[in-house]
Amino acid sequence: MPPVNLRHAVRALLFDEGGGRILLCRFAFxxxxxxxxxxxxxxxxxxxxxxxxxxxxRELREEVxxxxxGEPPHVWHQVVVDPAHAPGYDGVVNDYFLVRTPHFAxxxxxxxxxxxxxxxxxxxxxHPEDIRGYRGSDVFSPRDLGGLLARLDAGGLPGxxxxxxx
Length: 166
Fold this sequence. Notes:
Blueprint: E1 6-16, E2 21-31, E3 34-40, E4 43-45, H1 52-64, E5 74-81, E6 91-101, H2 112-117, E7 120-126, H3 128-133, E8 139-141, H4 145-155, E9 162-164
Parallel strand pairs: 1-6, 3-8, 5-9
Antiparallel strand pairs: 1-2, 1-4, 2-3, 2-7, 5-6
């Protein structure tokens, strides 16, 4: 079996301390048969020579204008092996970090055109119960984001990153 070439990415579960909401990016992927809209935590790929936290700091500054300080806890680990999931790769590994912050109006350093080139078409603060109750055509990443957030809230910080599915 040939080696699997996975893209390593980092994501921040940015929680608004006062409102209990999580900030998600709206990704729109144009595909045959329509557009797939995915709501996911801000973040992105780890570049050569970067640590995971360096990449997370860069991605948060670029996408949402957030200056990450300290070392947030690593709470989830996701491995998706699917060549259609990450062009040029056999899949992706996402490491999720929990960040609690006062509310802020997200606006990153990237222009709207630069964000669109990365398929980011919007930002929104979501209440976890609205994610769990969502019945529209958009999807969340991970797909069970609402359930995972509820378990994280009820169980506290895990001792080691929890494996999560697609």
